[in-house]
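Researcher: Next entry in the queue.
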Amino acid sequence: MLMHYAIANTTDLIWMYNEKGQILFVNNTLLKCLEYKRNDIYMMHIWEICQEISHDSWSSRWSEIKQKGRMIGEYTLTKHTKQTIKVEIADNYFVYYKKEYALGIIRNISNRVKLEQELIDKKNWLQLLLDQIPCIIHTFDKDGTHLYREGAGIKSTGVDSSFVVGKKIEEYDSLIFPKYRYNRYAIDNAIRGLQTSYELTTYNGLTFYIVFSPWYDVNNNIIGAISISLDVTQQRQAEKLNIAKEQRIRDLAQAYINAQDVEREWLTLEVHDMIIQPLSAAFKIIESIRVSDNIEKNQEYLNKVESAVKDTIKQARNIMKRIYPSTLKRFGLIRLMHEELDILSNEMPCKTIFENLFTEGDKELPYTTQTTLYRVFHEALLNIRKYSRAANVYVKIQRYQEQCYLEIFDDGVGFDLETVSQKAELSGIQGMKQRTEIMGGSFTIQSEINKGTKIWIAV
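Model: Structure for this entry, 459 residues:
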């Protein structure tokens, strides 16, 4: 009697059935979970509750239980309310007074299955993000073994990831780069907590700008190295071609190089700080989930991963939009400017006025001109959003003959132009000026403290 009472009231889910699949016993815990009445469930068969088992397959299933003596599997049980739960069942075969039975010990794994699915979804989000980053991301352990290699830039290398992942860098580096020792040196620096950046050219003529940084775990301990490789082959080829041209072309080329260097440095830092580090932390949290059975703690870890992934996706989209405004070709300059001003108005918030003086008779601007105007406009709005605290922003664009004019005014806190100009590479002013001059245009800016900022562009 004591044993029967213990089984009937234990917190584990237990049922018993015979060779015909008829349910003979369920304990109180399982009865409450399935929400059946006891008399009703004793009139049922296993296949009426367990979705993975059918009447037609019962004979072969019973034979398998009888042969093995014990079977464990994951199943879906249907409640009286038609809701379902995921469970793991350990079926144990036994004979009692020459009659055959099976006792099933059932474990509710719904939360685990849910967490596993969330983990798969977040892994897919991470992979989607990596597939859109215009570079190659590598990770190495302290011995220099290549652990991971992803990114949209892999296609340009012609080297499949399976060729390098799992190998030490000395095993393959000399087959790709003539000056291969730089990478080993950079990994050693990263292990010591130092960042290293340089350029290497492959045997097939591709040039990469490479940055190695320390790889930290969740406890801020260095566990290896992270590398970001950017294919800068086209930029380097353009630089060599421009050297032979007349002085004016060389001046413009130098401005282009400077702008690209600033853009590349910005991109490297943004990808490292805003994407790689959060992803590294997310990967370590995922590793913690794999070895933990604490559902509550795992949920906390998943929330952290979800937050990091969402923020990283947002940062990646911002970076990609600055690198290449793909919506510009699709929607055109004017519509894109309208949308960005609306976003600025809602985020700051502030009042925005956009005066478009283009007429139907105006010819469409060349795409290179549209790109230059958009990037200068976008950079100006970034600065307004970050620094100005403006209440009003005014933008006007117009065309006269072959020239296009863009004006951007705000009534924010302003700044001392001379002081900021000495740090132009940080403020973005130099980048806007260089982009305009590369197109043969002019860039003018005026600003005073507490008197706002005014920008005039003619292209």
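Model: The two ends are 94 Å apart (CA to CA).
Researcher: Noted, moving on.
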